[in-house]
Amino acid sequence: MESETDINMEPLSFEFTISDFDLDLLPIDAKLLRADPELLQKAVVDYLSNRFKPLGGKANIAVKRDMVAVTWLPSSLADHEKLFDYAIRLLQQGAYKPAEPILRALLRHGSDNGTIALNLGMMLSDQQRLDEAVTLLLEASSKMPDSANAWNALGVAYQRQRNPDLAIEALQKSHDLSPDNPYTLRNLGALLSESAPEVGLGYLRRAAELLPNDQQSMYGYANALLRTGDTASADEALKKAIDIAPFTELAERCRQERTKVAHVGMRERGGEVRMDVVMYILSALKLFKDAGKQKAGMITFEVAMLGRSGLDINDSAQKYSLKSLPGKFSGLHLLALMYTGLKQLAPDQDPGVDFSKEYTQALTMKGATE
Amino acid sequence: MLGLESGISHPPRLTPHGQDYGGSAYPINVSHDFKKLFDLVKDRTGYPVSVTPMENQTSHVTMRSATRDTPVHGIFPNPRYERFANYLVATQCAMLLFKWSDPQGVSDFVVNDQKADFLKRKVVTSFQGKGMPTSTATQYADSLVSGLLLQLTSSPLEILSVGWCFREYPELRVEQEAYIATHLRELSATLAPDIRKMTPREVYDRAVPMNAAYSLRWADLSGERGGLLPYEALGFEKQGRELLKALESISEDAPDVYRRSVDAWAERLHLSGWYRWSPRQT
User: Fold this and answer.
1) Which of A354, B5, B199, B261 is least crowded, fewest Cβ atoms below 10 Å from its Cβ?
2) Which residues of chain A are within 8 Å of residue B51 when distances are taken between CB atoms?
3) Contacts (Cβ under 8 Å, ≥6 apart) of A202
């Protein structure tokens, strides 16, 4: 650990043109800011002042013409680290433009043990500025030869440079250093499962175990399971992935995958046309005709909402109930009700399941009885 | 998203202390356990909450509170704002809690068509005077006037919910800050000179103070005053502060907090009589 006296307490300065400032960080419309240079300057100074205030030390932020100059005098090592932490937070928000001059200034300051090069390198890699990224990540891994994360990041940058051999070599090195580094396992698993799904699956399974709250890892694991044909375990993993963050795009993709998996299972069990579904649809047609459009809408809406958490269509147990319709229902029965409702009320909506053959069959049977 | 497509992504950002910030380098999906919140809504209102992402909407999130016919509160976040989904869902739940403070006395805001149509006609005439074709003018007037009344019925609730989430869900603070910065940015777009010039004062001078009140509320809570700068520059801060004071004078625990908040703002914005409250069969 460095002592306070060892560190460079010179002021840290950086500047950037105001046009390079990421206006998405400001709570004011970009067009409005561009039309009013005075407002833009005020907003940038206000933003930076608020960011430097909790860092300690003394910050001076000045705007001359279109240049923003920041000079900051830390009062302790802790202040210095706070600035770095702030840059990391910017990176986490995807605010690369304001993070870059801070990281470069910290790098120039000369006290980097490799972490600044690592984070700047990952940022550049994310921006596809891959040559400089690789240079910095090589520097980071040489300064921190035992850092699995540094080798992992280098592997990712190599892969993005379309250099899979070097990528696997770096990721393997990361894995050797830290066999349970979940990010390495995830990346190595994803790379390997392209050519050898069974091999990749082992890494991805371990990554998912180690990162049970990482949706992307769980989704990657589920996909690898699907690729190896283990649909039951894949469905479990997809369910877990949804639970991790239910409102994301990825969660929605998991729901679609689950529907596909359930559909395949249903067809495998019941053949080309499921007569049980035909009968459910037939009774739904009668129910909706008797009950009227409004009631049909209520039932369909309620089933659709219930279905958000997943209906088990491969279990015949009558374990579901509705507020809008008395009785107990199986998952397949409810899905048939919803399918029929959507076909009648909102035929453009995707019901997420294909009962078209059963629906046609039910209509034919209904026509014959009327 | 490179990481998502290829399954390859960088490890988390590291600090000098080697601290793991969690998540990947890509959009952070803050996982949040909403069971307790959903249970709270169900206990208060008697109806469960269902969340379904909905594309093709202009809003960040849409909410349909339950009725006898649709016995579920539907919350529909826009996937484009996925990174704020937890916060959006939490605020919609907060709105439900305020709106249903008295589950037996839930009321719906019903627009007085006569008043609205009168303003629409006035706006159409104003647009026509600026050379706008009648069909476009009618459409635009319709969306402006409806938008104003929608803002009246939703803004006070939204502001109450901002404070509620700030207090009750500190773990969502990062998401809240990021969302509100985005929202303030979108709201401030209405301050652009061309919009100011084009929008009739009857609408503009009522809508902007409501936005200013929202900005002020956030500035008061967070200490971040950046979002206020344009309102200060254009002189809307005072009216925004008056609206906020009116809102703050009503107890958040009052069973009719929703109706009273809207009524208080309507009075200050000279919109009383533009709507009536219709009791809902719950």
Assistant:
1) B5
2) 246-247, 308
3) A189
Token digits of residue A354: 């294909």
Q: Where are the domains of chain B?
A: 2-99, 107-279
Per-residue pLDDT reduced to its tens digit, B184-234: 999 999 999 989 988 999 999 999 999 999 999 999 999 999 999 999 999
Is A195 in CB contact (< 8 Å) with chain B?
Answer: no
3-state secondary structure of A182: helix
Distance between CA B85 and CA A215 in Å, rounded?
15
- DSSP states along B12-64: PPB-TT--B--S-SSS-------HHHHHHHHHHHSS-EEE----S-SSSEEEE
| Residue A162, Ramachandran bin (φ over 0: left; ψ between -120 and 50: alpha; else beta) | left
Q: How far apart are CA A209 and CA A189, in angstroms?
A: 13
pLDDT digits (tens, 9 = 90+) for A128-166: 999 999 999 999 999 999 999 999 999 999 999 999 999
Instruction: Give A214 to chain B, closest Cα distance, Å.
Output: 6
A-proximal residues of B, 220-259, CB under 8 Å: 223-227, 229-230, 233
Helix (H, G, I), strand (E, B) or coil at B248: helix
State the Cα–Cα distance between residues B89 and B77, nearest whole angstrom: 7
- Find, among A67, A153, A30, A314, the residue nearest to B185 by Cα: A30
- Say which residues have a Cβ less than 8 Å from residue A40's Cβ, sequence separation at least 6: A18, A33, A34
Give the model's confidence band at B54: pLDDT under 50 very low, under 70 low, under 90 confident, else very high: confident
Residue A159 at interface with chain B, using a CB cutoff of 8 Å:
yes
Average pLDDT over residues A54-60: 86
Taking phi over 0 as left and psi of -120 to 50 as alpha, with beta for the rest, A59 belongs to beta
Q: Which of B24, B41, B93, B229 to mutate to test the interface with A (most CBs of A within 10 A)?
A: B229
Q: Taking chain A, what is the end-to-end CA distance rounded to the nearest angstrom?
A: 87
Could you read off the pLDDT of A189-229 as tens digits, one per residue?
A: 988 888 888 999 999 999 999 999 888 889 999 999 998 98
Residue with tokens 């046009």: A19
Burial A83-118 (b: 16+ CB within 10 A, else e): bbbbbbebbbbbbbbbbbbbbebbbebeebebbbbb
Tens of pLDDT, residues A252-290:
888 888 878 887 777 776 667 888 888 899 889 999 988
Q: Can you read off the two tokens belonging to residue B16?
A: 């000098």
Question: Is this prediction's ipTM beyond 0.85?
Answer: no
Q: Is B29 on the interface with A (CB under 8 A)?
A: yes
Residues of B in contact with A323 (CB under 8 A): 71
- Is a pLDDT exceeding 80 seen at residue A308? no
Q: Which domains does chain A have, with CATH numbers?
A: 180-271 (1.25.40.10), 275-369 (no CATH)
